[in-house]
Amino acid sequence: MAHNFFAKYSLIFLIFLSFIWEAFFNPLRDGSSWLILKSVILLFPLRGILKNNIYTLKWSGMLIILFFIEGVVRFYSERGISQWFALAEIILTVIFLVSIGNFFWKKKYK
User: Fold this and answer.
1) What would the mean pLDDT of 44-50 be, rounded to a whole number?
2) Is 36 inside any structural domain?
3) Of the candidates 26, 65, 27, 25, which has an alpha carbon nearest to the alpha carbon of residue 45?
4) Which residue has the higher pLDDT, 48 or 30?
5) For the whole model, what pTM was predicted?
6) Residue 59: which domain range?
7) What pLDDT is recorded for position 33?
8) Which whole number is the average pLDDT over 63-81?
9) Is residue 31 part of a domain?
10) Residue 43 in 3-state DSSP?
11) Could you give the CA distance from residue 23 to residue 32 in angstroms, rounded to a whole number?
12) Does 104 fall in a domain?
């Protein structure tokens, strides 16, 4: 089940990317940023994704769309390394969405 592999690991990498980005490369003040809490939001669907819960796959797709939008906005508004982090966020969210979309496509037409 390749969809499961890509969904799991793209979510895990997105959690780490979000944490590292906000903690070390884009703080609002010295130390850390409150935006680091968005990494915690991504932990909510992790358990269901790891257990292949279909309901979690559905609602986590809606959650990931918000991170895709954030990545697009920050890609066009920021410069330097933050722009590369935003591009990585876009790529990871697209991988996640395509993998769960592929899962439901196969489930519907199987």
Assistant:
1) 92
2) no
3) 65
4) 48
5) 0.89
6) 2-24+41-108
7) 67
8) 94
9) no
10) coil
11) 5
12) yes
Task: List all residues 6 or more positions away from 5 whose beta carbon is below 8 Å from its beta carbon.
Answer: 99
What distance in Å separates the CA atoms of residue 28 and residue 44, rounded to the nearest whole number?
25
Taken in order 58, 60, 61, 66, is the CA torsion positive or negative?
positive
Angle at 96 between CA 84 and CA 50, to 5 degrees: 120
Query: Residue 8 in contact with residue 87, Cβ under 8 Å?
Result: no
The pLDDT tens digits of the residues spanning 8-22 come to 999 999 999 999 988
Domain total in the chain: 1
How many Cβ atoms are within 10 Å of 96's Cβ, its own excluded? 29
Q: Which structure tokens are listed for 51?
A: 């257990």
Q: Is residue 83 assigned to a domain? A: yes
User: Taking Cα atoms as reference points, which of 109, 2, 12 lies closest to residue 60?
Assistant: 12
CA neighbor of 100 nearest in space, from 44, 47, 62:
62
Q: Place 31 in a pLDDT band, splitting at 50, 70 and 90.
A: low
Q: Which residue has the tokens 């990871």?
A: 92
User: Is 79's pLDDT higher than 80?
Assistant: yes
Measured between alpha carbons, how far is residue 51 from residues 3, 24, 42 in Å?
A: 13, 31, 15
